[in-house]
Design brief:
single chain; 316 residues; mainly alpha; Glycosyltransferase; two-stranded antiparallel sheet; 4 strands; 54% helix; globular; disordered N terminus
Length: 316
């Protein structure tokens, strides 16, 4: 009996690991330029007396993934937690209090600061506040919100803001929130599983039929990650490979990705979009645990993106 030759080279694995680590560690020096010491928070647009909840939580999650948070100079998690919980509303640039976008990005960051036994580090009032937000997110996913517009059956299960269509980015982070607070059971979210599966293949069909007006690479990417990460859905390897081919075919000449469809509209500043590097980071972190052997086939386009980062990052 002869052994079959491996379909990959160990050097390719090693090269891919280096690329992934560079993406994940390069952020630390970049994020320092967006740090606000007096609030121990991070900003998108600098406002000295305001904590930007979603930007802060996103940065905390990124630093935590690379074990850099505790080493981050001048960061004080106790000060930040106090600033977060003293706010009368958890909102973002004119959105409603406790809207699905803000809380699904904020709560995982709060959990990182509180650690595993999070209830031990909060008073009953703040525990109740988090529990209320979890219920809001679950109601959104299950189509039980009082202000929800009429949707067809295929829209049930996805997270959304106001009257905008459900999208997989918000759905991913809603499920992530339940996961970190240990309140995720796949059986409770069957509608979300079906919604994700339907939109996953719908996006593949849009691309294959060259319906680029409706195709959205971000929607496709996060559908893939939801199915793998939260529902352990058995997606054939050839399908995963095809999806990665689609993702990297949509890479522009700079090695980045153009904007997809808007997630929703901020009343004060306009449309919100998923950030392309945020999408890529999620893809690399989640997918490597399932189909790392396929990722090695896309080293060249990954290097192209990393080259853009190295060329355009400036340490002010």
């Amino acid at each position: 009996m002869s052994l079959e030759k491996a379909s990959f080279d160990i050097k390719e694995y090693y090269s891919t690991i280096i690329i992934i680590n560079k993406f994940l560690t390069k952020q630390e020096e970049i994020l320092r330029t967006f740090f606000l010491p007096n609030k121990s928070s991070f900003f998108r647009q600098k406002e000295e007396n305001k904590v930007n909840l979603t930007s802060t939580s996103t940065c905390i999650l990124s630093l935590n993934r690379t074990n850099s948070l505790d080493k981050f100079k001048d960061f004080d998690k106790y000060k930040l937690l106090e600033e977060i919980f003293i706010l009368p509303e958890w909102t973002s640039t004119g959105l409603d209090d406790n809207n699905p976008y803000t809380i699904s990005l904020l709560l995982p960051g709060i959990h990182v600061l509180l650690k595993t036994n999070w209830k031990e580090n909060l008073n009953p009032k703040n525990i109740e506040r988090i529990s209320k937000c979890l219920k809001i997110l679950k109601d959104v996913l299950m189509g039980k919100t009082k202000d929800e517009i009429k949707k067809n059956i295929w829209d049930l299960g996805g997270s959304f803001v106001k009257k905008y269509p459900p999208n997989s980015f918000l759905t991913y982070w809603a499920l992530k929130t339940f996961e970190v607070f240990e309140e995720f059971d796949p059986k409770d979210f069957e509608e979300t599983h079906y919604w994700t599966l339907f939109n996953f293949y719908k996006q593949i069909t849009y691309f294959n039929s060259q319906n680029y007006e409706k195709f959205d690479v971000y929607q496709l990417t996060y559908c893939l990650l939801i199915l793998l990460k939260f529902f352990n859905h058995a997606i054939p390897k050839n399908t995963v490979r095809h999806v990665l081919e689609i993702i990297f075919k949509n890479q522009n000449i700079l090695g980045r990705w153009d904007k997809g469809h808007p997630l929703f509209n901020y009343p004060e500043v306009g449309y919100a979009y998923c950030f392309d590097f945020e999408m890529l980071r999620s893809l690399l972190e989640d997918l490597r645990h399932y189909y790392f052997d396929i990722i090695v086939e896309f080293i060249n386009p990954l290097n192209k993106t990393l080259h853009w980062v190295n060329e355009n990052y400036q340490n002010d």
